[in-house]
């Protein structure tokens, strides 16, 4: 199984406001914004060489990002790893006793499937696993 870092997630109050830093100082472009209605967030990706940064903005008060922003403010949210077989990784994680935030993979940005490990199971880091449909 080939695994690589897929992206780093950053929670922001406003993608447009946050993007100014990357645009003005680093001269990077962003991808088209995508709405993940079921999760209550809007996302866009920035590309810096081989690293993708995901900016996530809440769309409603009860979204996962709204709760994060209320508790911690803007900043680092998660790291994501790309995997070839997300169902196998999820099953193995549960068998090994890792706490997952869902029992099944969910829809992610770009038509991907995703699931998260609880930070208590991953050295204090919210950890996402991503599989892109072929």
Short description:
The chain has 134 residues and is α+β, with helices and mostly antiparallel strands. Helix content is 23%, strand content 35%.
Q: Main attributes?
A:
134 residues; eight-stranded mixed sheet; 8 strands
Question: How are the SSEs ordered, and which strands pair?
Answer:
Elements: E1 4-11, H1 15-26, E2 34-36, E3 41-48, E4 51-58, H2 64-72, E5 75-82, H3 86-95, E6 106-107, E7 113-117, E8 127-131
Parallel strand pairs: 1-4, 5-8
Antiparallel strand pairs: 1-5, 2-3, 3-4, 6-7, 7-8
Q: What is the mean pLDDT? A: 94
**Euclidean distance between termini CA atoms:** 15 Å
Helix content: 10-25%
Q: Which structural class should the secondary elements be placed in? A: alpha+beta
**Individual helix count:** 3
String of helices and strands:
EHEEEHEHEEE
Count of strand segments:
8
Biggest beta-sheet profile: 8 strands, mixed
| DSSP strand content | 35-45%
Shape: globular
Major β-sheet strand ordering: 2-3-4-1-5-8-7-6
Unreliable segments of 5+ consecutive residues: none
Assembly context of the chains: single chain
Structural overview:
Strands 2-3-4-1-5-8-7-6 form an eight-stranded mixed beta sheet. By secondary structure, it is an alpha+beta fold. The two termini are 15 Å apart. A hairpin with a 2-residue loop joins strand 3 (41-48) and strand 4 (51-58). It has three helices and eight strands.
């Amino acid at each position: 199984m080939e695994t690589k870092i897929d992206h780093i997630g950053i929670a922001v109050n406003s993608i447009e406001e946050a993007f100014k830093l990357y645009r003005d100082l680093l001269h990077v472009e962003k991808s088209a914004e995508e709405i993940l209605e079921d999760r209550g967030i809007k996302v866009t990706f920035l590309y810096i060489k081989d690293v993708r940064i995901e900016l996530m903005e809440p769309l409603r008060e009860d979204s996962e990002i709204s709760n994060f922003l209320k508790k911690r403010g803007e900043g680092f949210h998660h790291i994501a790893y790309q995997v070839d077989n997300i169902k196998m990784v999820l099953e193995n994680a549960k068998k090994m006793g890792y706490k997952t935030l869902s029992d099944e993979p969910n829809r992610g940005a770009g038509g991907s499937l995703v699931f998260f490990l609880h930070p208590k199971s991953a050295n204090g880091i919210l950890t996402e696993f991503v599989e892109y449909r072929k």
